[in-house]
Write a structure and sequence with these properties.
Helix content is 50%, strand content 9%. Among the domains are: 36 residues; 232 residues, no CATH class. α10 runs antiparallel to α11. β3 and β4 form a beta hairpin. It is of the alpha/beta class and 503 residues long.
């Protein structure tokens, strides 16, 4: 048999493994026969046993080469991601879990269960050889009462007494810790678990509380974090390029149900939220108050009305929305709709060719890449845009204006200035996906806990959505960020903490 290290072909390895298995079985029988014939030498002549163990070691090594180690904590590699047969593995098999801690548990047999069925002797351990497997388990959330003893000190002169400080408290004299309040907020506005369900989960873990108590914790915590929230909103509006979108919200104040709106303004690694009782131009003005620059939006008229009255606000519009309109029109006229969709797809294909600056790129490098992107758009995207406009001009009057295709053409032409603004401004993307992604958590939260119970509830939700989503976009741990921001603000009222303070 060739050396194990020299075998590269998987099929050959499998055949070799089967051969080794057969050899091990045959050798086991031979050892039993030898022991029966040489009872006197039993325990002295161990060479057959040693040979058997050697074969077993070779088999284990062969299996490891075939299937890989099963329980070693190893980093995710390119080979793990791409491999040689990705189609067979995609969507199947265990995921690598490099961030989970690992605990090794060794399972042994008692002596009474280790008797050889052939010779009756007690089996011995085969050195380091063992079969390995992994399972992911859960260690439940544990709530504790921490009893703090603050030592007192006095001077021998009996004129002065000092007491050691206790932990920072968001509610003076309160029974719950800052960490507990952060946990509740994280469960509610990051993991979308309503307070009532949290109460039930806590009860199963041994903690008896109420949803009102939990609300009191996050309400006070939100007031402490208010300066950080305002700072993030201000930073987003100072960026010069934002994404804006909105989705409905429910406010159940006074046992009624009112339709409110969650407005999202995102920029780079910041996503901010306001929950207001209107979707009007007035609400849009409040959300974008003080902003000067380019706002990427869909075709909602409130933004357009605001732009007409705000000379320093320019709108860029989303090509993905235009593409969606033409896809919807395919049932009316598939051929013409596909022509428009094909040209829009070409814009996105060109955009994928554009260079991208890394997160740590210097300012001069970022500027260089922006200039390269602008040139690419002028050379390749601009002719496609011109062709699309000519196509729309030919068919605008030839289709029924109230048909889906007619409406799609009218929608595109109405937003044409904003749709083509990306040609001259390389900062502008082709779509508003950044804002739409930022609203996904809000939509899930709305479905799970049906909105807010008061105006104050909308304010608290908007604050925590802002802080948690910004932490995620910045690549920092949301709980760690909120905890640090809260404890710093408690120690020094008004302190602003940014995600970069954790890196």
């Amino acid at each position: 048999m060739p050396k194990l290290e020299s075998i590269k072909d998987r099929e050959t390895l499998q055949q070799a493994a089967l051969l080794l298995e057969k050899t091990v079985v045959r050798q086991s029988k031979e050892i039993a026969r030898l022991r029966a014939e040489n009872a006197r030498l039993r325990g002295q002549d161990i060479s057959p046993q040693m040979e058997l163990e050697l074969l077993r070691e070779q088999l284990a090594a062969m299996q490891q080469k075939l299937y890989g180690p099963s329980s070693e904590k190893r980093p995710h590699t390119q080979d793990d991601a791409e491999g040689t047969d990705t189609t067979a593995r995609r969507g199947h098999g265990p995921r690598s879990q490099p961030d989970l801690p690992m605990e090794e548990i060794t399972h042994t047999l008692p002596e009474a269960e280790r008797m050889c069925s052939i010779c009756g002797q007690v089996m011995v351990e085969m050195g380091e050889q063992a079969e390995e497997s992994e399972e992911i388990t859960v260690v439940g959330v544990e709530y504790k009462i921490l009893k703090h003893r603050r030592q007192k000190y006095r001077c021998r002169c009996n004129e002065q007494v000092m007491t050691a400080p206790g932990p920072a408290k968001h509610i003076p004299g309160g029974r719950y810790s800052v960490d507990f309040a952060v946990h509740v907020a994280e469960q509610k506005d990051l993991d979308h678990l309503p307070l009532e369900r949290q109460v039930k989960a806590m009860s199963r873990a041994g903690l008896e509380t109420t949803s009102q108590t939990l609300w009191d914790q996050i309400n006070v915590l939100a007031r402490i974090l208010e300066p950080t929230y305002r700072a993030l909103c201000k930073m987003a509006l100072e960026s010069g390029m934002v994404y804006a979108d909105e989705t409905f919200w429910r406010n159940h104040e006074n046992s009624g149900t009112s339709k409110w709106w969650t407005w999202c303004v995102a920029s780079g690694d910041i996503a901010t939220y306001r929950i207001l009782n209107s979707r009007s131009q007035k609400a849009a003005k409040k959300v974008l108050s003080g902003f000067e620059g380019v706002a990427m939006t869909d075709g909602y008229t409130a933004y357009q009305s605001l732009a007409r009255s705000s000379p320093n606000l320019k709108l860029a519009h989303c090509w993905a929305h235009v593409r969606r309109k033409f896809l919807e029109a395919a049932d009316f006229d598939r051929e013409l709709s596909e022509q428009a969709v094909g040209l829009i797809n070409r814009l996105f294909e060109i955009e994928r060719e554009a260079p991208r600056a890394g997160p740590d790129a210097r300012a001069d490098e970022q500027q260089r890449i922006l200039e390269l992107r602008r040139r690419l758009r002028q050379e390749k995207s601009k002719p496609v845009v011109r062709e699309l406009l000519e196509w729309a001009g030919r068919h605008d009057g030839a289709v029924l204006p109230r048909s889906k295709l007619g409406k799609a053409i009218a929608y595109m032409l109405k937003l044409w200035e904003g749709l083509t603004r990306f040609l001259d401004d390389p900062r502008i993307p082709l779509d508003n996906n950044a804002a739409e992604r930022a609203l996904r958590g809000v939509v899930v939260g709305r479905k799970n806990h049906y909105g807010s119970k008061s105006k104050r509830g909308t304010e608290v939700a908007a604050l925590f959505y802002t802080i948690f989503e910004t932490a995620k976009l910045s690549g920092v741990d949301p709980r760690a960020y909120v905890t640090l921001a809260a404890k710093r603000a408690i120690a020094d009222h008004g302190t602003v903490t940014l995600p970069s303070d954790l890196t």
